[in-house]
Design a protein that fits this description.
6 helices; globular; 25% helix; single chain; Thrombin, subunit H; six-stranded antiparallel β-barrel; six-stranded antiparallel barrel; alpha+beta; 2 domains; 232 residues
Length: 232
Amino acid sequence: MSTSEERDLTRTADTPVARILQTVLRLDADQDPATRRMYPRHDLRLKGRCMFENMSEHPCESVNISATGLAVACSHPARAGARIVIYLDRLGRLEGSIIRATNGAFAVTLTNSVRKRLKLASQIEHLVSLPAEQRIEHRMNDRFVPDDRIATVAHGKDIRDAVIIDVSRTGIALKTTLSAGLGDTVVVGKRLFGRVARQFPGGFAIAFSVPVPESILLEGKAFVADDDRIAA
C-alpha cells in the first residue's frame, strides 16, 4: 500500500467503505507483482444488483474493481464467507465470495477462469480510459428508479401489473406475478419489447430488444399499457 493511499484511508478510516478499501488494498499487496501489473485495481463507480445466497436481490454500487476482486457499497447486510453474484452495469455477471463485510460495504474476491479474467480486465481498462464525453454517453445506460414505478408487462395474451425495481436504456427489472421463462419475449407497457434475461423471487429482469431513448424513460408513460385485460 502506498503512502498516499494510507493517508487517504486514515482520513476516512472509521467509515465502512474505508475499512473495505483497506482489505482490498492488503489483498492486492499480497499478490505477486506480475499479477498486480496484469490486473490493476481502478476506482470505478458502477450501479448494479447483488444476489445473495438466499436469492434476495439488492441494489449496490462498485467502489473499486480489478479482474480479481472488488469493493462494493450495499445497504443489505453481508456475511464474510458467503457466495455472491453481482450484476454490474456494462460489466455483466460477476461471481465470487465475500471476504470481509461491514455495515454498508463488503469486499469480494472473484472466482473466474483465466479467459474471463482477461476479458474483465480489458472491459475495466476500456471503461476507465474513456474520454469525458464518452463517459457521459455511457452513463445513459446506468440504471435508475423512476418516480412512478407502476408498469404493466405482457407474455402472450397474459398481461399483469408490475412494479419497477430499476430501469435503464437497455433493460428493466420488475416485480410481478406474470409467469415467463428465461428467453421468453415479453412486452413492457405499450410496446417495449424484450426477453427475460434472469429470474428472481417475485419477478424477473428484461433485456430490451433495442435501446430505449432516454426521453421515453424519463417520461415514464411508455411503461403502462392501455388495456382493460390487466390482471393484478
